[in-house]
């Protein structure tokens, strides 16, 4: 909690300073950072359950690498592969969030029947859609507001390729988990409260050698 509070204060200060010096890009990134930072809390409210702590951590890491090091410390300009790294993490984060939401929806809504393949496919599709939307936003900012977020068109394709790789890796892992559940993945992807709900809804879960297996 202390880390999140510190980062929240940092983002507010940077966003406020960017606004007063007319740095529209950093101001917009600060707003996006705050939105992403609080997205797990919004999802918790909707699903009445804790969001996976792993994803909380990944979002915080992504925001630190992208907003602080990337934009404010100019890593995007100084390190050629920094933008590629961030797009890879974008694919991973979006796919993880999508998988968790869809899998949770399947568990709490009895009428929702999705195969492991469909859950993985939806997660992958959402991550790719998010990557495409972000590239469109960059193009609009470059074209109409004079930013230089995109280099020549190959840069856009490289960004999408690494979003593709991140989303594909997570979706493949999600497919294996949904088809062959194991305790170690359950503990990583879900909070303790969600694990207890899963155990209540699925009597087939049992304890064996300190682990929960199907």
Could you characterize what this model shows?
- The chain is mostly helical and 214 residues long.
- It has two domains: 1-76, no CATH class; 80-180, no CATH class.
- The protein is 79% helix and 3% strand.
- It is built from nine helices and two strands, in the order αααααααααββ.
- The chain has helices at 2-20, 24-47, 53-72, 75-78, 82-108, 116-145, 153-179, 183-189, 192-201, and strands at 206-208, 211-213.
- It has a two-stranded antiparallel sheet with strand order 1-2.
- The longest helix has 30 residues, at 116-145.
- It is globular and about 55 Å long.
- It starts with a helix and ends with a strand.
- 25% of the residues are buried.
- Residues 205-214 have low confidence and may be disordered.
Helix count?
Answer: 9
Instruction: State the end-to-end distance.
Output: 33 Å
Question: How much beta, percentage-wise?
Answer: under 5%
Overall mean pLDDT score?
Answer: 76
Q: Pick out the low-confidence regions.
A: 205-214
**Number of domains in the coordinates?**
2
Helical amount: over 70%
Order of helices and strands: HHHHHHHHHEE
Shape assignment: globular
The number of E-state strands comes to: 2
Q: Classify the secondary structure makeup into a structural class.
A: mainly alpha
Strand order, main sheet: write it out: 1-2
Main sheet characteristics: 2 strands, antiparallel
Specify Rg, calculated over alpha carbons: 19 Å
């Amino acid at each position: 909690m202390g880390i999140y509070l510190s980062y929240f204060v940092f983002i507010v200060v940077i966003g406020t300073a960017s606004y007063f010096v007319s740095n529209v890009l950093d101001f917009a990134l600060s707003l996006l950072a705050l939105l992403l930072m609080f997205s797990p809390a919004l999802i918790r409210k909707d699903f009445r359950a804790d969001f996976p702590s792993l994803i909380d951590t990944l979002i915080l890491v992504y925001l630190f690498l992208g907003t602080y090091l990337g934009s404010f410390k100019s890593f995007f300009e100084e390190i050629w592969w920094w933008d590629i790294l961030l797009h890879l993490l974008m694919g991973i984060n979006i796919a993880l969030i999508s998988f968790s939401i869809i899998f949770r929806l399947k568990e709490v809504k009895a009428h929702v029947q999705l195969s492991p393949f469909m859950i993985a496919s939806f997660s992958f599709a959402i991550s790719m859609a998010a990557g495409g939307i972000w590239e469109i936003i960059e193009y609009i900012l470059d074209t109409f507001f004079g930013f230089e977020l995109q280099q020549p068109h190959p840069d856009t394709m490289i960004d999408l390729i690494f979003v593709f790789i991140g989303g594909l890796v997570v979706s493949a892992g999600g497919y294996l988990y949904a088809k062959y559940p194991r305790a170690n993945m359950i503990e990583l992807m879900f909070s303790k409260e969600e694990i207890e709900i899963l155990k209540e809804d699925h009597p087939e879960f049992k304890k064996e050698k300190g682990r929960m297996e199907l």
